[in-house]
Amino acid sequence: MRVTLLGTGTSMGVPIIGCACPVCISADVRDKRLRTAALIETDGLTIAIDCGPDFRQQMLQHRVQHLDAVLFTHAHRDHTGGLDDVRAYNLWQQKPMPVYATQRVQQILKNHYDYVFVEDNKYAGAPNVELHTILNHPFTVNNRVTVTPIEALHGNDPVLGFRIHDFTYLTDASHVNSREEEKISGSKVLVLNALRQKKHWSHFNLPQALELINRLQIPKAYLTHISHQMGLHHEVESNLLPPHVRLAYDGLQITL
To answer: 139 φ, ψ to 5°?
Structure first.
């Protein structure tokens, strides 16, 4: 199983337009962050977790020539803004793109992308997607890969994390209840959001993320959905993180 972190930045990315802070002007490529997304390659399938505004760029950069499905964590535009670009895969694969999302997220997608889901006189160049509803129990992608959804809160908004085999991915979360934490427990690798060092109302900050990682005794963890307020990559890793926790960066590949 191989995981590629396509983007590890917050909703505005890093650098932020107009900002001249040390992180935004850093020459370290690890401080350059596209919007958060991941690519999972396992059991003969290639699965995207979220497709935000940078989706096209990410697919081209990593030469992703085949895509079997998209899983959505939630409906915010930094995680769904690239849905239109799945039409390239429709062209080459000659079939609809399976999209897995909760009913709530599906309704928001239908509102944002009405031209995709209209039944009559559909625009010929619109993406072709096939919706699959995620409930709070394991499901399979293409009858091959089992995915366990993990419910969490992003402030007051529901979000999903996903566990596939011994890998768990959870972004944009600020609270996970004990029942859902049990689904994460036993993971060999966890990718978890940590927006910044100071507390935030809708994201784990660095201390909260570290507390969860340590409490669940995760042997290896990577922090994602990072803002420029976190600090320079090398300084945070050197001074604030234990050896089993690293800051993720765009293009990082994890093999399990």
So the answer is: -135, 165
Q: What is the pTM of this model?
A: 0.97
Ordered per-residue pLDDT tens for the chain, 256 residues = 999 999 999 999 999 999 999 999 999 999 999 999 999 999 999 999 999 999 999 999 999 999 999 999 999 999 999 999 999 999 999 999 999 999 999 999 999 999 999 988 788 889 999 999 999 999 999 999 999 999 999 999 999 999 999 999 999 999 999 999 999 999 999 999 999 999 999 999 999 999 999 999 999 999 999 999 999 999 999 999 999 999 999 999 999 9
**Structural tokens at position 178:** 């004990």
| CB-CB contact of 17 with 235 (8 Å) | no
Greatest extent of the chain over all pairs of C-alpha atoms, in Å: 58
Domains of the chain from N-terminus onward: 2-255 (3.60.15.10)
- Using an 8 Å Cβ cutoff, are 228 and 250 in contact? no
Core vs surface per residue 43-71: b (16+ CB within 10 A) or e? eebbbbbbbbbbbeebbeeeebeebbbbb
Is 47 strand, coil or helix? strand
> How far apart, in Å, are the Cα atoms of 83 and each of 31, 41, 55, 209, 236?
26, 20, 8, 29, 33
Angstrom distance (rounded) from CA 159 to CA 202:
11
The tokens describing 223, both together, are 């922090």
DSSP state of 95: S
- Tell me how far apart the alpha carbons of residues 234 and 109 are, in angstroms, rounded to a whole number: 38
Question: How far is 233 from 201, CA to CA, in rounded Å?
Answer: 23
